[in-house]
Amino acid sequence: MNVDVPPIQDETHCSSPTDVEETRPKQISSIWNHFERHQVDGKWKAACNYCGKQLLGDPSQGTKHLHNHFKSYIR
């Protein structure tokens, strides 16, 4: 039995959803306008520009805690 097989497409022109997600640049939260990020003893910290409080600043921690601090500080 002889079956016609379609030609193999070049993978560089593939437009699957996972390929699109991998090429998107990371979005940077606007909350970083109110915090300065720096390393202390090899760990990332975020210092509030208004009160100087040190919070976790590691990229894997997210920014919700920074938003919460900012909201409580401006009240």
From TrEMBL:
<keyword id="KW-0862">Zinc</keyword>
<dbReference type="GO" id="GO:0006357">
    <property type="term" value="P:regulation of transcription by RNA polymerase II"/>
</dbReference>
<keyword id="KW-0479">Metal-binding</keyword>
<dbReference type="InterPro" id="IPR053031">
    <property type="entry name" value="Cuticle_assoc_protein"/>
</dbReference>
<dbReference type="GO" id="GO:1990837">
    <property type="term" value="F:sequence-specific double-stranded DNA binding"/>
</dbReference>
<dbReference type="InterPro" id="IPR036236">
    <property type="entry name" value="Znf_C2H2_sf"/>
</dbReference>
<feature type="domain" description="BED-type">
    <location>
        <begin position="26"/>
        <end position="75"/>
    </location>
</feature>
<feature type="region of interest" description="Disordered">
    <location>
        <begin position="1"/>
        <end position="25"/>
    </location>
</feature>
<protein>
    <submittedName>
        <fullName>Putative transcription factor/ chromatin remodeling BED-type(Zn) family</fullName>
    </submittedName>
</protein>
<dbReference type="GO" id="GO:0005634">
    <property type="term" value="C:nucleus"/>
</dbReference>
<keyword id="KW-0863">Zinc-finger</keyword>
<dbReference type="GO" id="GO:0008270">
    <property type="term" value="F:zinc ion binding"/>
</dbReference>
<dbReference type="InterPro" id="IPR003656">
    <property type="entry name" value="Znf_BED"/>
</dbReference>
<dbReference type="Pfam" id="PF02892">
    <property type="entry name" value="zf-BED"/>
</dbReference>
